[in-house]
Amino acid sequence: MALKERPKPFLLPEYCKGCGRCLDACAKDCITLSDQINPLTGLVPVELDLANCNACGLCMDACPEPYGLRPAHEGEIQDFELEDPAKLFGVKPSDAPEPIDLPSEVLPLPRTEPLVIKGTYASALGALLAGCRHVYGYPITPSTEGAELMAKFLPKLDGTFIQAVSEVATVNMMYGTAGAGLPTMTFTSSPGFSLMLEGVSYMIGAELPGVFVDVMRGGPGLGNIAPEQSDIKLACHGLGHGNTHAITLAPATPQEMLDLTILAFELSFKYRNPVILLGDGYLGQMTGKVQLPETMIKPGIPKWAVYGDAMHRKNVITSIFLTETDLEAHNVHLNAKYEAMKVEARSESFLCDDAEVVLIACNTPARTAKGAVQDLRNQGVKAGLFRPITLWPFPVEELKKAIHGTQRIVVVEASAGQLEDEVRLALSKAGVRQFPEIESVRRMGGILPQQSEIMTRVLGQKEVLA
Amino acid sequence: MSKASVFYDKFERHSHGEGLKGHATHYCPGCGHGLAHKYLAEAIDELGIQDRTVAISPVGCSVFLYYYFDVGNSQAAHGRAPVVALGHKFANPESVVISYQGDGDLASIGLAETIATAQLGAPITVIFINNAIYGMTGGQMAPTTLMGQSSSTSPAGRNEYNGQPMKMAEIIAGLDGPVYVERVALFDAKQRIKAKKAIQKAIKLQVEGRGYSFIEVLAECPTHLKMDPEATAKWVKECMEPVYPLGVKKDITVEPWFKRNPPCFKGEKLLSLAGATSEHSDRFCQGFPTHLDAQDISLKLAGSGGDGAQTAAMLIARAAISEGFDATHIPSYGPESRGGTSYADVHVAKDEVLNPGSPDPQVLIAFNTPSLVKFGPTVRKGGFVIYDSSVVTEAPVLDPSIKVFPVPFTGIATDLGKAVVKNIVALGALQAATGIFPKDTLLTAIRVALKDKCALIPLNEEAFAWGIKSVEALDK
Ligand SMILES: Cc1ncc(C[n+]2csc(CCOP(=O)(O)OP(=O)(O)O)c2C)c(N)n1
Ligand code: SF4
Ligand code: SF4
Ligand code: SF4
């Protein structure tokens, strides 16, 4: 008979906080507040007198503590009297299985003719080839075409493109999908990237992968939509609060927009950390020759993910470490990871071996500088170009080689010295004290340094502005 | 009513689960969070979805939801839980995702995420704990704090300067996205039973794939309401309930909609979307057009929006790449792209385009007077200027070494019956004037670009031929 099976309540005084919610629940007045402070908890628990109890269960429904009022079985109460409350329920860890890696697969692709596409499209294709089927975004010029292409292609691939309500929402959708262990990315531009930084910090804290393509534009504030290298500092040193770093890649061609996007996904999973691809407004729009790779990725599910299945039930994604020592240990771990990322430093040195003047530039200005190097060489000037491909970690070892024996360094950039600061910081940290005075060619506001300005600076002629 | 098996047998994650804490929640005595947790755990148990569940922990007192629930757990930034939930749901549509949030979290900092997610209507479940105050940060005013209610940031009581309390259940129910919205309370046995049922129903709707549901729970925060638990429950009943009436605010039956195929990873499909092909295109060039430059030819095409300068520029780049060279095209940027002038920098290089900008082009194609006036003087010595003589009224004086080709692009195109092909006339003129590529190179690029509009090919071929003819006529 159902009535008989209804158990009466049972209480471990140690787990009762004495809130009294059960008192009102009992129509039979079986429960009263005791007047004894429990020495273990310092709280005053309730007392049960079950003489009148009809086992209605309402008191148990009213107790906010999972281990507070519980249905009792006679034996349990007897046992309790003999056992240490801390051991009463035994240590029964979750029966969820130990999560394992479901590895991703590399699938072959036929060799195709080169495509003629713009930078943002190349990056979007790179993401699809890297196995990304979950893209979130909020429109901002000059990055929007990337999102538009995703909105067109992803439904045909049974993937997801969602236009979020803001950049803040975007990065947090990425947080969710990344937490589930899948590749995810967004296209944004400077003001949007600023808004995402809260989420980037959380992703770094929770060790989640994700790719941010930031097609930089002129700032500060709304600035304009023309190309500027306005976010170098933000990406290299300002990814939200805390001790944050992320590998930052600076492509210079549509081909690199594709190649480095694929690399960004690989690195972001390798290190469980966001990766930033910094393009500039020109690069987003520039059309060029793009050769597709001969493989593509079908992602698996990493063992740390919270996928929402039995295999991954044990996991938790979080960036909270409540005790100071735990958080310090976490930061030590993150720093070790940042240190390990140094092997990913990449750069290109063009005609630097015998160069008397080395230009340093990245993104589109690096191409202008490359053109200048060629022209300078034609005029008999031994010029070279050093192009960092990773801005963080900065390829300082290669830089040291490139500027070895040079008499002049000229940093060419579309910013007020953000790249130069990276160069100086990297040299300083690497203990390089002796290097030529750094000269600069800088434009801002959406104007890129012109080849003629670089030539003028190098040849020491009077300033000719475009 | 018995401890749900979804609760950990020991709260290992709670200060490492030591001692008493291994079995007691971190909530204050009488806190509504504990009850809401219990009902949530029971619902997960009863629906048999422990393995599929992902619980999103918020910021606020319940930040440590994951101490208690033996399910997949993900912790989100203040207010962002609903969009994190969406990220999980889209990643695995089979998962059951629960966003659990306080009033500061959901109705203040995360309001945009809350409303947008509700309106999107994707099947997730939001449990909203409304205790009319900020708990974790120490009793500040919440969007749901009652008029006159004092808090540490409304010490004299909430007044009109702080605005009126937010009735979230009503706001959410007013949206089209959600399928089920109910406000429940915890202050007496009857309400608790309703609360349990509502939470269970909301999650069941998600399991069935029907849509977004929202359960607002009027909860007690004895600590910051500064009353004992019993008095707090009474306060919720007597003061909160009149402002936040209980009951179902929306309950519609819709067919399950959230069935999704797993993402596709078929190479052919991706390649065909990208328009990639393994077929070699024909090549017509004998070699790089070194008569123009040994390495890298720089062109500029300029006109007004609608002249087709960008399309022509793109066709030159495509033609070059199909011949195995490198090429780049940069469109002009900024408000010009929305009407006004429009120009394109194009490079064609033997091996690699070093600098893709064309500040001093070898070839200028100008579609109107301002373009010719602006860019004519930038053309390099010995370069080429081709312009639309139908519209250009005054030509600037250029360096005598520059070869100038006035060609009536517009006139020819209009005679052919379609003014838009004037850019193709210009390409013909480019071919004849500079010999940059063989005719077939450019014609092939034009035909490939028009492969979906085959009917237009003959007209374009004719326009191209006329461009050539007009340059040849000039030579004579
Ligand atoms: C961006 C950000 N701003 C502020 C905070 C501080 N903060 C933590 S909890 C909280 C209030 C939470 O109140 P509520 O959501 O009502 O939850 P409760 O504590 O009452 O359960 C605030 C403001 C934060 N964590 N992050
Ligand atoms: S089960 Fe019912 S009668 Fe028994 S103590 Fe609890 S509330 Fe009172
Ligand atoms: S409801 Fe639970 S915690 Fe509160 S007094 Fe009763 S038994 Fe103790
Ligand atoms: S402060 Fe309030 S909301 Fe937080 S645990 Fe205590 S009673 Fe609950």
TrEMBL record, chain A:
- SUPFAM superfamilies membership: 4Fe-4S ferredoxins, Thiamin diphosphate-binding fold (THDP-binding), TK C-terminal domain-like
Checking PROSITE patterns in the record gives: 4FE4S_FER_1, 4FE4S_FER_2
Query: Where exactly are the transmembrane stretches of this chain?
Result: none
Reading the lineage from the top rank, the first entry is Bacteria
Instruction: List UniProt keywords, sorted A-Z.
Output: Iron, Iron-sulfur, Metal-binding, Oxidoreductase
Which Pfam families does this entry report, sorted A to Z? Fer4_7 (PF12838), PFOR_II (PF17147), POR_N (PF01855)
Where do the 4Fe-4S ferredoxin-type domain residues begin and end? Answer: 7-36, 44-74
Q: Is Oxidoreductase among the key words of this record?
A: yes
Q: What is this protein called?
A: 4Fe-4S ferredoxin-type domain-containing protein
Automatic annotation (TrEMBL), chain B:
According to the lineage, what is the superkingdom?
Bacteria
Keywords (A to Z) from UniProt: Oxidoreductase
Show where the Thiamine pyrophosphate enzyme TPP-binding domain sits. Answer: 72-217
From the Swiss-Prot or TrEMBL record, give the protein name.
Ketoisovalerate oxidoreductase
The record's section on InterPro entries has: 2-oxoacid:Fd_oxidoreductase (IPR051457), Pyrv/ketoisovalerate_OxRed_cat (IPR019752), Pyrv_flavodox_OxRed_cen (IPR002869), THDP-binding (IPR029061), TPP_enzyme_TPP-bd (IPR011766)
Residue ranges constituting the Pyruvate/ketoisovalerate oxidoreductase catalytic domain according to the UniProt record: 305-467
Keyword presence, rRNA-binding = no
> A Pfam family matched by this chain, by name?
POR
Q: Does the record carry Hydrolase as a key word?
A: no
